[in-house]
Structure formats: C-alpha cells, structure tokens
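@channel sequence for tomorrow's demo:
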Amino acid sequence: MVEAGMETSQSNDPRTTETPGTVLSPTARDEACDLVTVPVRQGLEAVDILRRGAGETVGPVLHDGGCDTLGFVVPAGTAACWDVPGSTCTETNGRGLRLHPEAPAEDSGWLLPPGEADPATDPVVLRRALGEAARLIEAADNCR
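structure tokens (generated this afternoon):
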C-alpha cells in the first residue's frame, strides 16, 4: 500500500515488496524523525525501564560502538525543545531518515531494529526514562 506523499523508487533489492508500479521496502521507507543520543549505560537502563513500563513503547534504538552511545528514534520536531542534560537530539531537517534493518555504519548496529519496534519513542516517555536511568546509575555508583 502506498501512503499519500510517499516517494517511490524502482529497485532490484530483494528485500523490497512490489506494488503495481512501485517498489517499496516496508522497513526502509523514509521516516520523518530525530535521534536522541545518550551514553550507552544510561541508554540501556532507559530501554529496560521503557520495556518494563505499563504500556510504554520504544522505537528503534541504534548502538554506536565507536562512540559508546545509544540513539533513540523520536518523532520529527523533538530536537527543537530537547533539553535533557547529558544527551543530544539531532534533527533530520525534514529530509527523513532511511531506517534499514542492517547496521547503518561500521561499529554500529540496531539494539532494537526498525520493523521490530514501534516507529518512534515518545519523547515525553523517553525523557522520564532517561531521568530515572540517571538516578539509578547515580545510586548504584554511590553504593561503592
């Protein structure tokens, strides 16, 4: 099914699904999103918190081993008001981001790949989970 306003392209990629006159990849279409990047320890805690939460959902999460960070896919526009200390939010400037299930770069990989997660993590829920994760890490570090 082709969504209104979605660009289509012809491809010989075996992962794509044919629709009359178009070839689309169900997990690699352009998505309007931003990316919240946090240190890997805090990010892993936040993923656990989100997964344990009642009805909370988490979108794709990218692990960048070279930078030792996790990146949470969030809805476009989040970067404009993101102010969580210790994290950054990068906007896509309306260009969209290709969400492929393969690792997007060397030394990186999906902790939660596109297609196996919700389209994006709610930034309000993520902010709360990152705060809780920071408090848990601080408490654990102070118990030594």
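heads up for whoever presents: Residues 29-142 form one domain.
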